[in-house]
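Course assignment 3, question 2. Fill in each field.
Student: A.L.
Task: Predict the tertiary structure for the chain below.
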Amino acid sequence: MRWTRKHLLGLEGVGRDEIVAILDAAAKFREILDRPVKKVPTLRGITIVNLFFEPSTRTRMSFELAEKRLSADTLNFAASTSSVKKGETLRDTARNIEAMMVDMVVMRHPSPGAPHFLTHHLDASIINAGDGPHEHPTQALLDLFTMRERLGDLDGKRVTIVGDILHSRVARSNVWGLTALGAEVTLCGPTTFMPVEIEKMGARVSTDIRESTVDADVVNVLRIQRERQEGGFLPSLREYTNLFGITAERVAGMRPDVVIMHPGPINRGVELMTDVADGDRSVILDQVTNGVAVRMAIIYLLSRVRAAERIEESEILAEVGL
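Answer field:
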């Protein structure tokens, strides 16, 4: 299937064939990353802005590296050193950036729906790099790519996501993506970390860490987001670790070929123990590497849609003699 969307705002509503198109393209870009020369001229002349209103390490560096590997021109925006501090609105910030002839915007913002808002005001393609607790589609896609790399077809595979589901944009995007590919998803964590009616997304809910992981093919461990814990969702981190932390003892009760994942950054000793994070079942560093290939694929596919739009527009103008 050919990718036809101008933006990537989330995985809700994105079909199986569309997701597979991204993952297949990412597999080809992953091969490029293994070459001695890792740069290709595919997007020469394309300008991309990384518009980050929240701190980020992996996602921002991964996007920047993906853009440079494709030979795009890259601009980096940090809210802490921008005119946002002087009261400039999101719309004005974005429109000023686009006035510099930007083709694509990669955006992270604390407010759910902020990337969707930009699509109504900019002509550039928008990639959601995380909008509050809503979605983080590129993280989910690199997770899917890593799972498929280890397990093959994900249809019927059992994936358990453990942790703070309520505040996790990664969990939501993973549920949409995994269910689209036919995987069985279980969400495990304290009841205070479960959104109301989350089962309507197609996932099963459990508060029993052993029951939810004993037959899992993949256990994806979420970070306890201390910066989002102002509501007192946990009595203490120690209690969370005792009940839901992924320890070597708990892993011993799982399948011998279980895949352990984490989107990072890891709170070592809280949601994931060091010996598990660094163990032979962990694919956490593979996720980081694959993230560059997946983001290269997304940028490339969106750029093709924009190129097709421009060709169509030029053909229409030619027909009317302009």
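Instructor remarks: The chain has eleven helices and nine strands. The chain has a mean pLDDT of 91.
Grade: pending
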